[in-house]
Amino acid sequence: MMKNDYIPFPSKILEVIRHTEIEYTFRMEFQGEVKPGQFFEVSIPKYGEAPISVSGIGENFVDLTIRRVGKVTNEVFERYVGDTLLLRGPYGNGFDVSDYMGKDIIVMAGGTGLSPVCGVVSYFSEHPEQRGHMTLIAGFKTPHDILFRDDLNRWGKNMDVILTVDCAEEDAACHVGLVTQYIPQIKLGDVQNTVAVVVGPPAMMRFSVQGLLGIGLPEENIWISQERKMCCGLGKCGHCKIGDTYVCLDGPVFNYTKGKFLVD
Amino acid sequence: MGFHVTNMQLSALFQTWQTNYDIYAPRNFSGGGRFSDTDCIRYGKIDCVDEIVFDKKSEYSFKEILTPISQTLFFFTEGETKEADAPKKGAVIFLRSCDLHALKRLDDMYLHNGPADYYYQRLRENIKIVLMGCAHSFGNCFCVSMGTNVSTNYNMSIDCQPDGTYLVDCKDEAWAQQLEAAETPRLEVIPSHVEENNVTVQIPEHLTAEVAKSTMWNEYDSRCINCGRCNFVCPTCTCFTMQDLFYSENGKVGERRRVWASCMVDGFTDVAGGGSYRKKNGERMRFKVLHKVLDYKQRNGYHMCVGCGRCDDICPEYISFSGCINKLDNAMAEVTEQ
């Protein structure tokens, strides 16, 4: 019997964590293998499907951090209480934490870009013995847009967390400025033994990678994750194709040696 | 096994097919053209061989039989989902050599690029192919350049003779037995094929994605009107978009479909929150052209374009795809000089 990958399964919403007015984390019932950086197609009948990356993984759940910016996500926010969502997945390659083990780690995230790397940061926050020094630079538009506040506080206990916003009132409790401004503040050891993960809007990723290359990180030590329209997650619909690469199959996580050749 | 068949003998074969198969072939849709009082030749169900148009190229390809323009995947009824039924019958499809080569591309896309596609596979498993010979090249065809002018992987071939009879080469045993039983005259048949086109293309050996930086794409910013017709007539374009719809009589019941999508049309790359890629039509043209003659090959080992020339036939702005391919050599020179 052939497998029909298009039919979604219902998943119960176990908990909703509100970060901001428009960004919530939905803790969804799920059992099965899943890696940080992979994504699910989340759907609501009548409104359609949207690819959402995994921001947390537990024994019987996955966290999906959803921003209310489109047709599907709008509806998710309207009707979530005690309800279920339809899911397909997980899809994509995701981050392999073994790539970063025993190394100094830099994570640079912009906005909801923090959500796909959350799982990586959490893992190394819980297993500090498996890594060297770790720095997280997380940037948001304004203090109202900051995601994962509780997690950021928790992570800050055993790694350098630099929280910055593009613009803020004067008395804001975080830095103001672009993430790239804080690259010089990274406590850098041996660059050959330092890895970096960069996720965020295209321009943020471009300049962040330039900055990291600038301080001497080799290209092969940098990973990025791409966001594209994906209607299937199965390498069929064509929307996420860049050159000979399908982001949904070959990505969304790319080593920069491959990622740098992706020209839309 | 070759036969010289009459219309009547072929009709008998059609009747046998129709117990288990629908028969699809290029046929004339009178008044079905895109302008008033014009006809359209495209694929449709047929009952007899007379309906088949042999002397013209079909404006649209056979692909809609395997990847319908709008395909219901499943139905929603409150908390339940119900998979859409497969067609009850298989399909006998009449197609030309270029389109038969295109079928290989559809297979590689839907069966081998990631997990096999459930809906494609269940249609694909139950088709038979009748190759329509090409006695001469049609306008804009460049199959010889693309190496798609000859095909041998058919169940039967058919060539229409001037006297209204047909030459067929039958590889399907059951069909051949039926023709033999009807005492159809046997002879050696090689399906006709084109050995020369008026249009030729030369894909540069040293072509790389660097050609994206060339200025050659700029002209398409203004010439192309991103209507997407080139994608819709192309036998190798397979992109789709998911679409949910609910019935107006009962808002609790609806269906999820996939519908054809075009990389030339606005919205193809839009992500939630307002991001999009390839805003200029020239960039979209570059994306499409390089998929057909560069990056598909990097992934699959052979070119995607089959040289049917339908994109050139249909373009309302008279943009020539083959013309564009032939500009790539200069464009490569331009970007390597820099």
How would you describe this protein?
Chain B: Keywords: Iron, Iron-sulfur, Metal-binding. Chain B: This is Anaerobic sulfite reductase subunit A. The complex is a heterodimer of chains A (264) and B (338). Chain A is α/β, with parallel strands linked by helices. Chain A has 2 domains: 83 residues, Translation factors (Elongation Factor Tu (Ef-tu), domain 3, Beta Barrel), CATH 2.40.30.10; 129 residues, 3-Layer(aba) Sandwich (Rossmann fold). Chain A contains 6 helices and 15 strands. Chain A has a 7-stranded mixed sheet with strand order 10-9-8-7-11-12-15, with helices on both faces. In chain A, strands 1-2-5-4-3-6 form a 6-stranded antiparallel beta barrel. A two-stranded antiparallel ribbon of chain A has the order 13-14. The radius of gyration of chain A is 18 Å and the shape is globular. Chain A starts with 8 loop residues before the first strand and ends in a 5-residue tail after the last helix. The model of chain A has no long low-confidence stretch (mean pLDDT 90). By secondary structure, chain B is α/β, with parallel strands linked by helices. Chain B has 2 domains: 159 residues, no CATH class; 129 residues, no CATH class. In chain B, 31% of the residues lie in helices and 21% in strands. Chain B is built from 12 helices and 11 strands. Chain B has a 7-stranded mixed sheet with strand order 1-9-8-7-6-2-3. At the A-B interface, strand 4 of A face strand 4, helix 4, strand 10, strand 11 and helix 9 of B.
Rounded to an integer in angstroms, the radius of gyration calculated over CA atoms of chain B is 22 Å
Tally the beta strands of chain B.
Answer: 11
Order of helices and strands of chain B: EHEEHEEEHHEHEEHHHEEHHHH
The major β-sheet of chain B equals: 7 strands, mixed
Output mean pLDDT of chain A.
Answer: 90
Record the strand order, biggest sheet of chain A.
Answer: 10-9-8-7-11-12-15
